[in-house]
Amino acid sequence: MKKLENPKEQKEPKVKKTVRSKYIILTLVSVVFGFMISYSYQFTAQRQSHPKLTSSQYERDMELREELIEQEEKNQSLQEKLNDTQSLLLEIEQELSEEAVTFSNLVEETEKYRMFLGKVKVKGSGVQVILDDADYNPQSQNANQYIVHEHHIFKVINELNISGASAIAVNGQRLSHDSYILCNGPVIEIDGRQHPAPFVITAIGDPETMTAALNIDGGVKDILVNENVRFTVEKKSEIVINTNLEG
Fold first, then answer.
1. Which helix (H) or strand (E) holds 122?
2. Which residues contact 237 (CB under 8 A, 6 or more apart)?
3. What structural domains and CATH numbers belong to the chain?
4. Are 150 and 130 in contact (CB under 8 A)?
5. What is the pLDDT confidence band of residue 143, given thresholds at 50, 70 and 90?
6. In 10 A of CB 214, how many CB atoms?
């Protein structure tokens, strides 16, 4: 025979399950409600930490914004002016550079003209030519055939100029573009100053070129020697020629 179950015992498990479900639901509701309260509190705190601007504060904020924009526009304008100024400065520097080159060329040309005019003291390598009277022959009827004349000196000076001499002096007296040489008996007169023989002609320039030009066959040396003039030429590593005012 089957044992009969007590009806109270059958209902007791169902009642426990129902009560347990209610506790779970209540717990979930409490958690959700607590989360909502916490979120609401944080949101309210954030709203309170960033209060709304008043009308005066808003106007001040707009004024600052406008001032900032205006300042930025001024900065942009100044930057453009600076760029233009820098470009102009570069142009001026270029012009000055070109003028400096021109000025340097003018200075160089001026120095050349001053040297040509005998206004500056010069020093350099060159040659030294000595012209002297020959020994007089008593049997000769013309004593002038044995002395140095101005045309002898002219021949040497012209040959030196053609060979590129930058400065020439006779017995230490500097020659200029308008110098004159005259024969006055046994002496030579240069720009009013008299010089006796021997005549030492110094010239600054390329020694090799000037020496070769003077010694060429049938040239100045041969002509002067045939005219009874003692002729010597020597290369010099350094020659100093003063201005035509110093002598």
1. strand 122-133
2. 125
3. 122-241 (3.30.70.1880)
4. no
5. low
6. 22
